C-alpha cells in the first residue's frame, strides 16, 4: 500500500467565551433570591471582599452601638407599662446554658398520616392497621388506588410477609373508603363521585345524580342532555339540578392533603423589577436594592499600594502570600464588576421591554400587548439574542396590576400578514366564549368565523390551539342545561 502525505489549509471561525463571560452568563440566569445567595457565598469564601457599609462606619459609631437583642426588642414597646411581665423576668443562666424557646411550626402531614390518624380512632386491630398502612401507600396524591386488591394481596405476602385473605383485605379497604375526605380510595372518577354522593343528604337531586353517575356516566360525560332526559324520563329542570350536584363534587379529593399554610407562604414570587406609572402615563423601572455595595477589603488594598500583609520569614512564604493576595483581590474585583454588568444588562433589557409594551403597562389590558420576540429586544439593546433569553428566564416584574413573568410579554404574530399579537387574539377568544350561549356553545369553526369577521385572519387549527392554551374544553364539554 502506497502512503501519501498531503497538506491542506482551512479557515474556521470559533467563538470562545472567557471564564468571566461564562460566569456573567450564569449570573444573568439567576433570580433575585439566587443572586443574593451568590453574594453571601462569595463574601464567605473570599476574604478580599467585604460590604462597603462596614468600611464607611467609623470606630465611634461601632463603640456607641452596644444594644443587645433583648434591648432592641424592649425598645419596640411604647412604654414600660406595655412590656409583658415575662420580658422583664431575670434569667439566671450562664452564657453556655441552652435555653428552650418554643417555636410555632405549621403542620402539614402526608396523606398516609392523615388517614392513619383517622383509622387509629377506630376499633381496628394492630394487624389491620399494618394492612391499612400498606393499602394507603398505594394511593396517589389525589386519593385514587393505583393497584388492584389482588396485586396488593400478593405484595403483602411477598414484600411484607403478611398473609391476608381476600375478605380481610376487602374489609380494610372498605374502611379506608369511608374515611375523609369523601372519595378517597376510589378506583376511578366514577367511583370517586359515587363515594361522595353517598355522603350527601338524600333528596331527589342527589338520587338522580347517583343514578346518572352509576348507570349513564358515559352519556353524561358527552353532555347529551336531551338523550339523557329522555332515557331517565325526567324534566330538564330536574336534570339541571342533578348536574349542579355532580359539578359540585371534587374529582381530586386528596389533592389538598399534606399542604400546609407554611407551604402556601413559601410559594411566593419575589419580583426582579418594579414598574410604576404616574398620572402623566410616565413609566419608570426600578430594581430591588437588596444586594449591598461591595468593595475590596482594606488590608488587600493596602498591600496593593505597597504595604506588607505580615512579616514573612522566608522569600518562599512571602511569594506564596503575595500570590494568594493577588488572586483573591482579582477575584473580588471581577465579582464586583460582574454584579455591575448583570444589573446594567437586566435594566437595559427591562427598559426595552417597557418601551416596546408601554401601552400594556399604562392600561394593564392584555389586548394592548404588541407582537414582540427576542430579536426585537436585541435590536433595542444591541445585546445578543442568547443574552436576552437568559436575562428574561425566570424573572418577574411587579406592576400596579399584578406580577408577570417577563416571558409573558414575548408573543409572535399569528402570521406574517397579521399585526395582532397572540395575546390580543387570546383575549378576544376568551371574550367570545364567555358570552356564548351555554346551552349551545360555539364550535371551533364558529369561533374561527367570528374572529375572521373581527379582523383576525387565522385558521381553525390555530383557534383550537389557543382554546387549549386557555384551558377551555371543546364545545361539547362546555354545554350546560
From TrEMBL:
Keywords: DNA-binding, DNA-directed RNA polymerase, Nucleotidyltransferase, Sigma factor, Transcription, Transcription regulation, Transferase. This is RNA polymerase sigma-54 factor. It holds the Pfam family Sigma54_AID. Belongs to the sigma-54 factor family. Residues 108-299 form the RNA polymerase sigma factor 54 core-binding domain. GO terms for biological process: DNA-templated transcription initiation. InterPro entries: RNA_pol_sigma_54, RNA_pol_sigma_54_core-bd, RNA_pol_sigma_54_DNA-bd, RpoN_core-bd_sf. GO terms for molecular function: DNA binding; DNA-binding transcription activator activity; nucleotidyltransferase activity; sigma factor activity. It comes from Duncaniella freteri. Signal peptide: none annotated. Gene3D superfamilies: Homeodomain-like, RNA polymerase sigma-54 factor, core-binding domain. Residues 323-479 form the RNA polymerase sigma factor 54 DNA-binding domain. One of its GO terms (cellular component) is DNA-directed RNA polymerase complex.
